[in-house]
Amino acid sequence: MMSRFFIFLFSVLITALPVSAEVSKGTPVTLSTKDGWALAALYLPAQPEKRTVVLLHDLGKSKESFSALETSLAQAGFGYLALDLRGYGRSVGGGKASSFAREGVDNPFNKMTRDVDAAIEFLHKKGVKDTDLCVLGAGLGANVAAKSMTFWPDTAMLALISPTSNVRDVLTIPAMRLYNGDILIAAGAADKKMFLEASVIRNVAYLTTGPENGKVTFLTAYDKTSHEMLNQYLIPAVLQWLKTPRRPEVLPDASDAVDTTEQTDGAAVEPSGTEEALVPSVL
Fold first, then answer.
1. Which of 33, 126, 135, 208 is most buried, taking the most CB atoms under 10 A from its CB?
2. What pTM value is reported for the model?
3. The CATH number of the domain where 85 resides is what?
């Protein structure tokens, strides 16, 4: 009897292993842009009542750079669509990014917003609503994600990992003056220029959204940027933000009320109720 029990238990465990191994594996799909690019992507549908995240990688990277995040998203029930932006990974039918012009408001890097168009249109056809959609980018992908909100302002959530004001002439701040959804911004303090620019983006976003509309969450880390910072420090925080992008307001006692207004370039910018302090902190 005991040997039969162990045989049964072993068979159950062996049967369960492939299921857990496959849980994070997306299905390869091809996205077609309106200007003729065929983009390689991985798609995993979300579980019921869960969000789907579009993943946009950094310069010199590919969709595989999100493998750790993809696994965590899948285990939490979130869906994802990770794509190779034009010129990267397997999306090189129109040429490689190394040959792209680095300057110009209509250069190939700025046209990556059309890659996001293709991704969102694909998800719409799969039944994903804007209210269940998040666009997350790292480095260049963060700038592309931000600029894309000019064209998709109803997207519920936007996550910018190591954004800057300008990458390859892809600008973030103009779009942040228009977008009203929930925003997460993360920056590593070791790169002072990047951290300062991310802080400015945060301030513009907060002034745009205001407490009555969206909320801004700001995350920091001492070292690392882009995918490396995301993988080492931020994945748990990103998952929590996807679940609860707006923390409940904490009302101060009347007798202990203090001025929490933060001064930025001479303009008063009140810290968001959801953001971490603008002081380096490893998560």
1. 135
2. 0.82
3. 3.40.50.1820
